[in-house]
Design a protein that fits this description.
This protein has one domain. About 75% of the residues lie in helices and about 0% in strands. It has eight helices and no strands. The chain is elongated and about 65 Å long.
Length: about 160
């Protein structure tokens, strides 16, 4: 895919007047932010992914927020590590016990959800490489924001998406 095709996919003509373009962009940004800050909010998706762990289409939602889940896992594990270091040094006060317990529980839930999502996607990508390559082809080359297909690759991606 060339530079011109990539730019045309990301910035189609009339994008400034297209509400679907703005909403799709905001949805992707919001999904990434939620994946970093409050990964536990994605717990229903993680449970759905666990139930359908052999279906790459169901797990492809985590592929869109993979970087956010990874950043969330690292951030929340760092928070848990910081709380553990403070506890080992004896610097935690008894007065702040409840907020610290809540923070540890929140970080644990977020880290567990992010770890589960990353594990499911990695396992599925390893086991079903051909299906993930089709999903990647469609994601990279299919026309977005309601634009009709213009190139042969876009027509092929559109046909694969409809299957």
């Amino acid at each position: 895919m060339g530079l011109k095709t990539g730019l045309r996919n990301e910035f189609p003509r009339g994008r400034w007047r297209s509400a679907s373009w703005w909403l799709a962009g905001l949805w992707e940004i919001d999904l990434g932010i939620v994946a970093v800050v409050a990964t536990a909010a994605l717990l229903p998706w993680a449970v759905r992914g666990l139930r359908s762990r052999d279906e790459p289409e169901a797990l492809s939602v985590f592929d869109r927020c993979f970087k956010g889940c990874l950043a969330g896992l690292v951030a929340h594990l760092a928070g848990l590590l910081g709380l553990a270091v403070l506890d080992l040094r004896g610097e935690l006060m008894a007065v702040l016990a409840l907020p610290l317990i809540l923070a540890a529980a929140w970080s644990s839930a977020n880290a567990a959800t992010a770890g589960l999502a990353l594990f499911l996607v990695a396992r599925s990508r390893w086991a079903r490489q051909a299906e993930w390559s089709v999903i990647g082809f469609v994601a990279a080359r299919a026309p977005r924001y309601g634009r009709p297909p213009e190139t042969i690759e876009e027509y092929e991606a559109e046909q694969l998406r409809e299957r």
